[in-house]
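Researcher: We plan to redesign the surface later, but first we want a full-length starting point. Tokens attached.
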């Protein structure tokens, strides 16, 4: 007589667990609170931003004069790149960059995460526009993207 009771208990227990187990399988009957993302619906992971980042901070947009040492370094950099013609200043502004990339990160490169007071200088020369960034020193960084 004990066997039918044990069998009946197992059958009732299996019926009670059926909805819970069905919810654990793909396409289960219970609603899934977090949708699963497939590899095709998720964008590719990026290690760096796709282009220059606009600077932020209290100094953004503050027009400034370009110090002679920085202007000379910028002119020398353009000359080393084979740019002919005298550069003409389009804009020069004081900025606070969010890291040592000066808003012009290179993919795969690591940068110090710190606020960097500097400047952005845009010039034209030889019919092209050039976006230069300066951090705390006088070495120019040409932002090419």
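Model: Full-length starting sequence:
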């Amino acid at each position: 007589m004990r066997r039918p009771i044990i069998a009946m208990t197992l059958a009732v227990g299996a019926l009670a667990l059926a909805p819970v187990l069905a919810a654990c399988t793909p396409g289960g009957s219970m609603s899934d609170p977090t949708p699963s993302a497939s590899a095709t619906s998720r964008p590719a992971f990026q290690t760096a931003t796709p282009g220059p980042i606009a600077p932020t901070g209290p100094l953004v947009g503050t027009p400034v004069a370009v110090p002679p040492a920085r202007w000379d370094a910028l002119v020398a950099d353009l000359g080393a790149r084979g740019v002919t013609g005298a550069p003409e200043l389009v804009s020069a502004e004081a900025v606070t960059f969010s890291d040592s990339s000066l808003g012009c990160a290179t993919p795969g490169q690591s940068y110090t995460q710190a606020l960097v007071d500097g400047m952005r200088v845009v010039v034209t020369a030889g019919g092209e526009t050039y976006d230069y960034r300066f951090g705390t020193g006088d070495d120019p960084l040409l932002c090419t993207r």
